[in-house]
Amino acid sequence: xxxxxxxxxxxxxxxxxxxxxxxxxxxxxxxxxxxxxxxxxxxxxxxxxxxxxxxxxxxxxxxxxxxxxxxxxxxxxxxxxxxxxxxxxxxxxxxxxxxxxxxxxxxxxxxxxxxxxxxxxxxxxxxxxxxxxxxxx
Length: 137
Ligand SMILES: [Zn+2]
Known about the structure:
This protein is an alpha+beta fold. The chain has 2 domains: 3-68, no CATH class; 78-133, no CATH class. Helices cover 45% and strands 13% of the residues. A hairpin with a 2-residue loop joins strand 3 and strand 4. It is rod-shaped, with a radius of gyration of 28 Å. It starts with a helix and ends with a helix. Bound molecules: zinc ion (ZN).
C-alpha cells in the first residue's frame, strides 16, 4: 500500500506535503499526532516520535511489516533469517557430534575385538560419509 492508503487507518491525519503525513500513533495513547508516514522508494516509512517501533505500529493496525511495501510481500526481518541459519548450523553441529560419537564407539568395539553387526557397519559408513561431506574428518 501507499502512505495515502495507510493514513486512512489512522486518526488525526494531517498532510505535510506530497506523500508525507503526520497522524496519531496507533501504538500508544497519542493525542498530539506524533507518527510520520512517508512514501520512500518502494515502501512506506513510519516513524513514531514517541519511540514506538514500526512493528508495534503495524501490529496495532492488524498489519504486518510486509504491508508497508508498495507491492505487498512477505517480509521477514533480517534477524529472523540469522536465527534460522543459526539453528540450522547448530543442528548440523549436533549431528556431527552424534556421528563422531557413533564412530568412536564402533571403533572402540572393533579394537576390543567385538563383532559389530551389518547394520552397525552400515551406520558407520553413513556417519563417516556425513562427516566427510561436512569436512569434519
Ligand atoms: Zn507511538
